[in-house]
Design brief:
With about 220 residues, the chain is an alpha/beta fold. It has one domain: P-loop containing nucleotide triphosphate hydrolases (Rossmann fold), CATH 3.40.50.300. The protein is built from eleven helices and four strands. A four-stranded parallel beta sheet has the order 2-1-3-4. Helix 1 packs across helix 8 and helix 3 packs across helix 5. The longest helix is centred in the middle third of the chain and has 16 residues.
């Protein structure tokens, strides 16, 4: 059984990859014996894909994050680092209204929520970015258990070490190769904070963003709407 980490861009991919790497390094035999014996890697898929039926035979860990925070970080990626059109030519308040802005992030969550409701991905565990910021330990256990790690191996000492190896600063060091600019707005790990999206919008734009999520987010509403 292959293990798959999935997230929308800027939803904690670098963080969860670092956690997975720490588990692989610290656990006897790697993440799981099957994982190690098959020579498989812990994969990360962030591209949007509507149909999830092809994932029915995977162990899936999906990381979700407030789409309002996501679009702020995603715009920084597209505008400052990738310099990708149309984001590079737009300020955040204008870009967020484009199809690849907030609508894209909400559509990702809705499609995954629907797939889960239809049991298209039966072996799935959800990691909540905001919850992980409060205490990552239970989520690390959830990831490891989904990836078939024996619970007895997940000792408090091991979890503490995983947390130590996956702090925001540790993730920045791990992904320093992609941060080759002094401008922190280009970095893989920019602020690593939750609930700060309003700082980047005018009051009118923030109201539009809030209203869009309230009207269009069909799944994960208890967390984000």
């Amino acid at each position: 059984m292959r293990n798959l980490l999935i997230s929308f861009p800027r939803s904690g991919r670098a963080w969860t990859l670092t956690i997975a790497a720490a588990l692989s390094e610290l656990l006897p035999g790697g993440m799981t014996h099957q994982h190690r014996a098959n020579g498989a890697a812990v994969h990360s898929r962030s591209r949007y894909k509507s149909c999830k039926r092809g994932l029915s035979n995977f162990n899936v860990v999906l990381t979700t994050r407030d789409p309002r925070d996501v679009v702020v970080s995603y715009w920084h990626l597209l505008h400052f680092r990738q310099k990708r059109s149309p984001a590079v030519d737009m300020e955040l308040g204008e870009w967020v209204r484009q199809d690849e802005g907030l609508a894209y992030a909400v559509r990702f969550l809705n499609d995954w929520g629907l797939a889960i409701a239809k049991n298209q991905v039966p072996r799935i565990t959800l990691l909540n970015y905001e919850g992980m910021k409060v205490d990552p330990r239970p989520y690390i256990v959830d990831m490891a258990r989904r990836f078939e790690v024996d619970r007895d191996l997940l000792t408090p000492a091991l979890l503490d070490e995983v947390v130590k190896r996956s702090t925001a600063e540790a993730v920045r060091r791990r992904f320093a190769h992609s941060n080759g600019e002094p401008d922190s707005r280009m970095h893989s790990v920019r602020r690593a904070e939750a609930g700060v999206w309003r700082e980047y919008f005018s009051p009118a734009d923030a109201e539009w963003v809030d209203d869009y999520v309230e009207e269009n987010l069909l799944y994960f509403r208890g967390q984000y709407a």
